[in-house]
Specification:
By secondary structure, this protein is of the alpha/beta class. It has one domain. Helices cover about 20% and strands about 20% of the residues. A five-stranded mixed β-sheet has the order 1-3-2-5-4, sandwiched between helices.
Length: about 160
C-alpha cells in the first residue's frame, strides 16, 4: 500500500487557515499575529509503521515520480510526504521558497544518510524545522525490506 500525503502547509480549501504543518510565525486569516506553536507536524517517525518513507517536492516531477514508483514497487506500507505549494493562500512556502531550500538526500556529495536506519531517518525528517527551514531534505528517508503479512501466511 502506498499513502501519498499532499502537504501545502495551509488549509487552502477553507481559504487560508493555518494547518498542523504551517510554519512557526506564519500569518494567516486565523493567525493574524503569526502562528504560535513550537514546531509544525511533519513527516515523523515512527512513520505509522511504514517500511518505505520518502519526501518529495511537487516542483521536481521527475524526482517525485521516481519516489512514487519506488513506493508502489515496495513490498509493504509506503508513505510519501509531498510538498505541494498552495499558490493561492500560502505566500510564504512558494515554489521559489522550496527551490532555494530543498536538497536531495541521495544526490548530496559523499552522502552518509543510511536509509536502513530509522533513527537516522527521523533526524533527517526533522532537519527542516531544526535548521529554521534553511535546509529541507527530500528523497528516500527510510526503507526496510521486512516480511509482509502475506508472505508469512502458510501456503
Amino acid at each position: 500500500m502506498t499513502y501519498i500525503v499532499h502537504d501545502n502547509q495551509i488549509y487552502g480549501l477553507t481559504t487560508g487557515q493555518a494547518s498542523p504543518t504551517s510554519q512557526l510565525g506564519m500569518k494567516t486569516k486565523t493567525t493574524p499575529w503569526g502562528l504560535l506553536k513550537s514546531r509544525s507536524i511533519r513527516l515523523s517517525m515512527r512513520f505509522l509503521g511504514a517500511t518505505y518513507v520518502a519526501r518529495a517536492f511537487a516542483g521536481d516531477i521527475k524526482h517525485m515520480t521516481e519516489l512514487i514508483k519506488g513506493a508502489i514497487q515496495h513490498r509493504g506500507f509506503a508513505l510519501i510526504d509531498v510538498f505541494q505549494p498552495c499558490v493561492t493562500f500560502n505566500s510564504l512556502n512558494t515554489y521559489d521558497w522550496f527551490r532555494k531550500r530543498v536538497y536531495k538526500l541521495q544526490d548530496t556529495e559523499h552522502s552518509t544518510h543510511d536509509t536502513g536506519n530509522p533513527d537516522a531517518a527521523l533526524q533527517k525528517a526533522q532537519e527542516d524545522y531544526k535548521s529554521n527551514y534553511e535546509k529541507v531534505p527530500i528523497g528516500l528517508f527510510y526503507k526496510a525490506d521486512l516480511p509482509t503479512y502475506e508472505s508469512q501466511l502458510p501456503s
